Amino acid sequence: MRHEALLEQYFTAVISGDRSTARELINELIDADCDASQILIKLVWPTAEQVHKLHRADQLSEMGHHFATRLMRHQVDQLQMRLVQTERRNKTVLLVSGPEEQEELYGQIACDLMEADGYDVYYAGGGIANDEIVAQVGQLNADILVVFGADAKTVPFTRMLIDRLHEIGVCPKLQINVGGGIFNRAEGLAEEIGADLWANDPLELVELMDESPEQRMSQDQRTVGRKRRKSSAA
Asked: Less Cβ crowding at N or C end of the chain, within 10 Å?
């Protein structure tokens, strides 16, 4: 089946709450020996992005949005068990997201792919106060903090979180990474708030984390509106 046709069928199934068809489409891919990570990133992820885009534009009903996000979260849970787990990296990641169901779905996909790639991931979801996040970073002695799938309302809090972590020096070598959500729509935003790495989708972020474990954004590199810098720029 062509990729475009598959995306259309899956999108139609999830927004209508058709669990049987959505399940059959996933099972067909599994039976064809498609890798679970590729199903997540090439089918579930773009469908979730499309659902969110249409919902924000008032082109998808609340019912359709709820059907889709809940069904996809269930299927992400199922696919997680099929992800090939690589050798542990002995690096701890604390991952948080925006507070909405859609944003937590993004965070869950990111969490599962990072864990499969060898990171030890603690996923808190959304709605966590900055003080608690800072405390948990210290308690875990985390190597990486990831904010994935944040919305526009949470950006000021993310900026304050990054500033606070630098200010008090919790885990001085901590890498702070962002992706998805508002960071996909606002060019230069991730760089402005001082994120060390940023990416459009979970797989891209995992690849950047693997390639650039030492990258850190210095104070004088926090700017407004520059084009996305390559991961080696720092």
From this structure: N
